[in-house]
Design goal:
heterodimer, A: alpha+beta, 4-stranded mixed beta sheet, B: mainly alpha, globular
Chain lengths: 113, 273
Amino acid sequence: MLERTACRRLVLLWMLAASVKAVAADRPIVELEIRNHLFHPAEILMPAHTKVKLIVYNRDPTPEEFESYELNREKVIMGGQRAIIFIGPLAPGEYPFFGEFNPNTAQGKIIVK
Amino acid sequence: MLLNTVIIILREVLEAALLISILLAMSRRLRVDPRWLPLSLLLGGAVAVLVGTQMRGISELLDGVGQEVFDAFLQLAIYVLLLCVAVLMIRSYYSQNTVPGGIAAAMGAAVTLAVIREGSEIYLFLSAFSADPDLRPGVLSGAFIGAGIGFSIGALFYYFLLALPRRTTLAVACVLMTLVAAGMCIQAAQLLIQADWLPAQSSLWDTGNWLPEGSVSGQLLYALVGYEASPSPVEVGVYFSAALLMVALLFWARYRAEAGGRKGERDRAASTP
């Protein structure tokens, strides 16, 4: 009897570990595009307290630097290249970001709810 | 385009310029041959262009976080070199005549790496936007103005350090180097968090309303002490451990140098009857 409970517990633990690992591997993915020095979409929604994988596609021929003081992120994205940036977990709120090489036009924000 | 270029170039140049002015002031005080500076600027500039041209490949490495990891390791290497410079500085200050040979090499290597880090971004920006004939005049004049302001601030800082009394210069330089070095580590930590190599956490506090990172003073503090408005526990831990390690090494080097000095005096006293 005792052995059986222990066995069941082990299986339960293994399932829990497996599910946590699956969650880690399947981080929510949010995609963003840079076209003509503009972010599309300029506003993105993200769940609160969750780590998100942000993929930024730079469709322009020129490089851009994704930058945000609020998110503590900066990354150069070469023309025609895509970049992966991990973001969060974040508290609900608004987090602006911009393209450092074209800050007049390339503006956007992440809205965390 | 002019104003944007000024800001971008100034931001990149400022960090390197402040580090150079601290090291150059100490080099002057300790009578180290300053030839390491032009050599490291040339070498750093050349490698920066190379890194800039290879940025596409570097970014693709390590599942797309090659850029973060590369930059983080540059920052950590600068930290280690600054540790060496600080210890050698203390040693040469107390040993009066002899200047340790490694100090010029360590200073030069630190500046080379800083120039690679900041210069590759400048190269990418300039090469992309000065190719457009409409933007070229604004980009080029903006780059000259930005670099001019950055180096002027560095020069002012250099003369300020040299105007201090000799003993104070060493103390101020040690404090500044500790803060700059800890700033390098917090930047490295931030890059590794971005790459998902270090755990991402919620921030401990947020001073962004009080002193925004994007403001002029925020940028100056960022360049000098690695100011971060909303740091996470990992970043704060890294910053203070890096600073503490450097302070401990500095005091250890001073203790060793003073003990060595006393021993030297005793030996001299014993040999002269």
